[in-house]
Design goal:
- The protein is α/β, with parallel strands linked by helices.
- The protein has one domain: Nucleotidyltransferase, domain 5 (2-Layer Sandwich).
- It is built from five helices and five strands.
- The protein has a five-stranded mixed β-sheet with strand order 3-2-1-4-5.
- The longest helix has 25 residues.
- It starts with a strand and ends in a 10-residue tail after the last helix.
Length: 172
């Protein structure tokens, strides 16, 4: 099972690939899609779509895991993030890839134990979990954490499907 994790942002979208090898997650790749401030909104959206297309071609994932929608106090920021998310969703949907979303606090809790973990804590945890020689870039670390969270969720769901509760009549 190969998962691409995506941490969507207009200025720096994080991408990561994690394979499930048995019960062990294996690091494959992570990188950012940077968009300098001088780029216009349309230029940034095209860059995200093009880079994501190339990434999906290169790594051929089975599923996509991305950060879910979260509350933004600034309406303009929310709208811009919505544009970037729309490009990511459309790009993945066009390929027929199953997509799963996880709220930021759930991802942080899944990989650090705290729903309010800092960016630095997320980077250090991803470095430790995957044995990386250096700290991954912030957005790439978040994408790794999203992919890892999805693998954990899949494993928990599989275990739950495999559990059979005893017939209550047999307990009497």
């Amino acid at each position: 099972m190969r998962i691409v994790g995506i941490d969507t942002s207009l200025r720096c979208t994080g991408l990561a690939v994690v394979d499930a090898v048995g019960a062990t997650p294996r690091f494959v790749d992570c990188r950012p899609i940077p968009n300098p401030a001088r780029r216009t909104l349309p230029e940034c959206l095209v860059r995200i779509a093009d880079a994501l297309e190339a990434y999906l071609d290169e790594f051929r994932p089975d599923e996509i895991a991305m950060e879910g929608i979260f509350f933004c106090k600034n309406a303009r920021t929310s709208l811009i993030l919505g544009h970037a998310r729309g490009v990511v969703v459309a790009t993945c949907a066009r390929r027929g890839l199953p997509m799963h979303e996880y709220p930021p606090a759930r991802v942080k809790r899944a990989v650090t134990g705290s729903g309010s973990a800092t960016k630095d804590q997320m980077q250090r945890m991803m470095q430790s979990v995957f044995g990386l020689p250096a700290l991954p870039q912030e957005d790439s670390a978040d994408a790794l954490a999203i992919a890892l969270t999805h693998l954990h969720e899949r494993r928990i769901a599989a275990l739950a499907r495999g559990l059979r509760l005893p017939d209550p009549r047999a307990l009497r």
